[in-house]
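In this supplementary section we document a worked example of the pipeline. Step one takes a protein sequence of length 432 as its only input; no multiple sequence alignment statistics are reported here. Step two produces a three-dimensional model, which step three serialises into structure tokens for compact storage. The input and output of this example are shown verbatim.
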Amino acid sequence: MIRLILFVSTLVFLSNCSISETSRIWNDKEEKIENQKNIKKLFDKEKKIITELNPDLKLDLSKLKLNNYIVDYKNNFGAQNYSGLNQKSGSYKFSKIENPSHLNYKPIFLNDGLIFFDKKGTIIRYDNNNKVIWKKNHYSKSEKRLSPKLYFSLDDQNLLIADSIAKYYSINIKSGELNWSKNGSYSFNSEIKRERNKFFVIDYKNTIRSFSVDDGSEFWNFQTEDSFAISNSKNSLIIIEDLIIFSNSIGDITSVDIETGLIAWQLPTQSSNIINESYNFKTSKLVSDGKSVYFSNNKDEFYSVDVKTGVTNWINEINSNIMPSVTGNLIFTISNEGYLYVLEKNTGNIIRVTNIYNNYKVKKRKNIKPIGFVIGKTNLYLTNNDGKMIVVDLVTGNPINTIKVSNSLLSEPFIFNKNLFIIKNGSIVQYN
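The serialised model returned by step three reads:
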């Protein structure tokens, strides 16, 4: 009798497993069906077709205010005092960085020269005649083999450095001698910003850290959600009054108190799925006019966010992961497809869209990507991953010149003291 009961129970159990929608057997069957190649997806998201908008519209830039600085805590450089591009006037040479995936680094510009680094982490100070004043390396032999990449920030007569191998330190800019040196827990992956006796940097664990400029001791840290993959994009941070606002590798924008590190607000911009895909996700640097924060990503999203509350002012559909520029009531940005967008700052309305890659053949355009741009008096200067720079007339939005700078990688362009600078692997090229 007992055997009969067990036999019937087993039959009922197996029968339930075969028809249960929550069973593993059923789920596996569904996964196999979904993975079949002959099954097509219906109602998939349509790919956006980008076209020009008001291409004949001319902008009135007569009231354009020019800036003349290279450091801004809000990344709000706007239009700068440069009217070239006349001719190449010099280059600052350094040993090539090994196997770089990008040149997303920035020199320190001084009135009497500049500071950069080479493939072994040697810091080099140059004068205005492109001559080396001093070279200093503060790494061991084993550390040099890791080819550290350095991020800089000035602290009066000292230089603050954080790097890609979890080291951070301070040197004297007159001599290059070491003031102090510390080792962090994780590699750093962001800009450095300094405010009074503190400086701030973000590591690969999406943790922002506050350090003392005097000795490198840590005041506080704040960790945001981590991703499973190492991002290929550098995080960004800005300082607005008593707040630090920063991005992480999964699209969160977070605001914390500058003294305590306590959170003020956080804006997640992506679903949880991005955590597993963060290597391919890229966000632009943050830019602010003091009232709003502007940024975009390669998921067709351009945001304006309120500084104090983190509330979204507006979102527009623009596919770009390079830093926008705010000038007056206008925002300029360039999409990954090579279109120059002009937006109205307060509403996000698109005023004009022009195609600045129209001189490239259609097949070649698929492989051309913008790296970054700066705005001068009347022109916009855009560098691309093919080693060329395109000069665009801001009034009309049309390209007026293309200059070959390198055969390979370039950095975004920088303007300082009425000169334009571009990093290529092995030198920093200067134009007057």
